[in-house]
């Protein structure tokens, strides 16, 4: 693995981004504001990030030569999603620094590994068990109970790769649906609401956290994030310290999303995401330095912004046919639209989001 230099990149340097979706798009815009160029590596044609980046490589992650050419053109590599094939990282890590590092990816790519890592830090998670076959699932249900949810260990997002089990006699059907895919069983948590902390750590070890946001999901997809979240002062402090603990344990560089359940017995970690996060989009209108600029600052070796919130904001995703609301939203003077440049509208597809400022400090 190539050594990571501690000196900051100068404006004009090129940041390589693995993945060309909307997160890559917004990272590219933030990088451009700081004078950096961006080079996107994305298998799909005409990605949203490609509309605003200086260069795009369209190639699969198993194209070794394309990966090498991409690395030779950039100064540092980051990513907008965590499910990057290991073989691609094996090539890139010897050519350019990868920020955040591979350990964060290794942990977050596997739900079982992630839950074990979090518990190893002394953090609370939902009860869980490794699922390999019907016998292991039946045994886990005996221990954890129902309702519970089976999740594939790898891949899966926005509710994908998940099977709810309300009764033990549904185990065989769940195993059939998994078709041999490694999985994890998680017990349900009684919680009042979900919050998330968007946290950042610099190459020198400085940590800065944004205010926790309160999340509401629909059909497994984030619908809204509201700041400030319903948290008491002690809960807010605990959430931020918890996120900082994870960052430091990973020797992390960049922005990390930490999803938490609020329960009468304290905060329970749902999952972590080693990247900028949908629930952090509110920072675009709520802070001087938003999550995207914060990530670029970190991976470029710059000082972090403080991320202090100066407004109350509600972020709402525009999913599928929600794009029909755009003309009305554009008339709302308290609302900032962020559209992703996607031409095909599909059910469940994130087409954009808007931030509505509800109060200024």
Structural class: alpha+beta
Shape: globular
- Provide the low-confidence segments as ranges: none
**Biggest sheet, in brief?**
9 strands, antiparallel
Count of separate DSSP helical elements: 11
Can you name the CATH architecture of the largest domain? 2-Layer Sandwich
Q: How many distinct folded domains?
A: 3
**Measured on Cα atoms, how large is the radius of gyration?**
20 Å
Describe the protein's architecture and organization.
It contains eleven helices and 17 strands. It is an alpha+beta fold. The protein folds into three domains: 85 residues, Rossmann fold (3-Layer(aba) Sandwich); 61 residues, 2-Layer Sandwich (Dna Ligase, domain 1); 168 residues, D-amino Acid Aminotransferase, Chain A, domain 1. The chain is globular. 43% of the residues are buried.
Main attributes of the structure:
361 residues; 11 helices; D-amino Acid Aminotransferase, Chain A, domain 1; globular; 4-stranded parallel sheet; Rossmann fold; 3 domains; 9-stranded antiparallel sheet; Dna Ligase, domain 1; alpha+beta; 27% helix
